[in-house]
């Protein structure tokens, strides 16, 4: 048991007092010796909230076709909410978030903590597959999920606020990236992929539109096709190779014309070690991320004059990206969130 607190079920004549016990996989409601209700932590179950004046006043569970609400102390309910984030789908919490940009409805502010966050629409099927994978991850190069909720028969995921722009847009704005930038970006990406593979997760669709770039840092933001598996294949590594090819050339890797790929890399003055690494990642079916990170590409040094020239170019690119749009990361058409509280807590209970 990780949390226990008192709650009250309101009735028109006599109220009933219970104890809520929270475990890793469920919560129970009842007296000390015998729980009357048990609610499993699964995303197919919905935890309903009653919010008043931006404070949680009660929670509700579905029981025999009806929603039963239980009133409790706000601090206890906030703890319950924190423990259940992404373990259960929430309902009736839209008023805890405020849309702060009419031109970017996916940018939100938590009305209690005042933290910025983002939101994206997701299908129920995606919810059941994607959230269990991402909620276990904790890496600076991977987006984190705050909680998920249902609103007007639509499902939403609230994520950390990333800002910046997609790597795809960054490359379009800056078609001639320096060697230092290319190496820094792919190094961060490979370390994030290494973390995923260590946790038996295959992303499967890593590309420049699924990565956000901001102030030299990158973050993977889309896990819609990810899967949990004990058998790690080479799909993510090949995709990273294609991304490195694009970073140097600004063009897509051609799976059908190897000679054209060589010419494209050479015309872009791609370092030989970078060319070698790209073809290893794309062609070698047995290579792993740890082996890739040992490649000389990540440790070789340029001569002093070349370092100076590329650093100056790097500074010019940095200045050109200092005024980037901060809201390009997770941009979707999000409907306006409105609260329609038509019943009092006692009426609901």
Automatic annotation (TrEMBL):
GO biological process, one term: mitotic DNA damage checkpoint signaling
Entries under InterPro entries matching the protein: Prot_kinase_dom (IPR000719)
Gene Ontology annotations for the cellular component aspect, listed alphabetically: cytoplasm; nucleus
GO molecular function: ATP binding; protein serine/threonine kinase activity
Parts of the chain that traverse the membrane: none
Region (Disordered): 317-349
Biased composition, class Polar residues, residue ranges: 329-342
SMART domains per record: S_TKc
Name by which UniProt lists this protein: Protein kinase domain-containing protein
Lineage: superkingdom: Eukaryota
Protein's organism: Paramecium octaurelia
Pfam families given in the database record: Pkinase (PF00069)
């Amino acid at each position: 048991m990780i949390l226990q607190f008192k709650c009250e079920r309101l009735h028109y004549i006599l109220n009933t007092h219970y104890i809520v016990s929270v475990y890793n996989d469920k919560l129970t409601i009842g007296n000390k010796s015998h729980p009357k209700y048990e609610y499993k932590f699964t995303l197919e179950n919905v935890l309903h909230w009653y919010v008043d004046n931006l404070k949680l006043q009660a929670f509700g569970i579905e029981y025999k076709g009806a929603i039963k609400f239980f009133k409790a102390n706000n601090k206890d309910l906030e703890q319950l909410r924190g423990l259940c984030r992404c373990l259960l789908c929430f309902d009736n919490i839209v008023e805890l978030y405020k849309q702060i940009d009419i031109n970017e409805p996916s940018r939100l502010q938590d009305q209690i903590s005042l933290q910025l966050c983002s939101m994206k629409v997701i299908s129920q099927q995606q919810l059941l597959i994607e959230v269990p994978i991402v909620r276990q991850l904790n890496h600076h190069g991977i987006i984190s999920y705050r909680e998920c909720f249902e609103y007007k028969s639509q499902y939403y995921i609230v994520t950390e606020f990333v800002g910046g722009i997609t790597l795809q847009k960054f490359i379009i704005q800056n078609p001639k990236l320096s060697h230092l930038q290319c190496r820094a970006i792919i190094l961060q990406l490979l370390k994030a992929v290494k973390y995923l593979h260590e946790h038996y997760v295959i992303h499967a669709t890593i590309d420049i539109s699924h990565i956000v770039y901001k102030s030299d840092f990158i973050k993977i933001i889309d896990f819609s096709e990810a899967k949990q598996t004990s058998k790690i294949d080479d799909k993510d590594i090949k995709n990273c190779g294609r991304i490195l090819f694009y970073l140097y050339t600004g063009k897509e890797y051609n799976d059908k014309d190897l000679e054209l790929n060589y010419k494209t890399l050479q015309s872009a003055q791609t370092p030989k070690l970078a060319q070698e690494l790209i073809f290893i990642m794309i062609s070698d079916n047995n290579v792993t991320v740890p082996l890739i990170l040992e490649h000389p590409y990540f440790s070789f040094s340029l001569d002093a004059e070349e370092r100076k020239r590329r650093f100056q170019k790097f500074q010019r690119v940095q200045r050109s990206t200092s005024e980037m749009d901060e809201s390009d990361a997770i941009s979707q058409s999000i409907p306006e969130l409105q609260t329609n509280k038509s019943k009092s807590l006692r009426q609901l209970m």
